[in-house]
Amino acid sequence: MNETRDSHASSERSESAGRPEAGQPAASADRPGAEPSDATHFGYQTVAESQKAARVAEVFHSVAARYDLMNDLMSGGLHRLWKTFTVGQAALRPGMRVLDIAGGTGDLARAFARRVGDTGEVWLTDINASMLAVGRDRLVDDGCLQPVVQCDAESLPFPSGYFDRVTVAFGLRNMTHKERALAEMQRVLKPGGRLLVLEFSKVHKPLQRAYDVYSFSVLPWLGKRVAGDEASYRYLAESIRMHPDQETLKSMMESAGLCRVRYYNLTGGVVALHEGLKP
Ligand SMILES: C[S@@+](CC[C@H](N)C(=O)[O-])C[C@H]1O[C@@H](n2cnc3c(N)ncnc32)[C@H](O)[C@@H]1O
What average pLDDT is seen over the chain? Predict the structure, then answer.
């Protein structure tokens, strides 16, 4: 894992229509400078904005039961290190209030609950009932009695200025209006609170070819063999390529009102952890 801070990662993605080359996203309504439009992307497909959430929901209803196993297989266990790094960076103290958005099966929420103790709160949230049900059961099995709420990150049912930390791991990529979701995350943070966004990002150039072969051949094959669902894992590979790169996401977080935004490239930029402070 490469934990060095890299504030000079390249931002060399080109705007192109239709199915892009691997690592080259098509024009996206999520990125600054893109044409306003009611179309967005679902992987490499262009879909109406109103359809994206339902398409994403199908993916996560389909994969929920095998999600944790697939995560270990696909990443060779690396997702555990990425999450451990995130938990360390969150620097939680007893009594803090934490919101885990798109928390799914609850890896981060369980680790957070141990750190904030009985006086703290960790809210596990997700838009998808199937993912959240797995996460809730795992929290309970772990002896963590924390609130679990089904909600959309783009419209959070929490008061402004409530949380010390807000986290979102591998969730932002799936959201239709990322700017709206980031603004909501900023809103619910206390002044001085921190947002942490763990997400797939743009890999360093020497790794790109091997990463493309892995993503577009091995991942769908694993999805088919283990989860009986090739399409969802093809969506995973495509959605990663369509997600804003390190510098673009940093700018988006700044536009959402966060300051001192910085990021850490992990595993050669396969994943990046972005952090920002609410002034
Ligand atoms: C790849 S999973 C990540 C789960 C967990 N955070 C982890 O790191 O293992 C992505 C999650 O994002 C959730 N999600 C997608 N769109 C969302 C939205 N608009 N609001 C809240 N959650 C959303 C999905 O339901 C799914 O559970």
Answer: 88
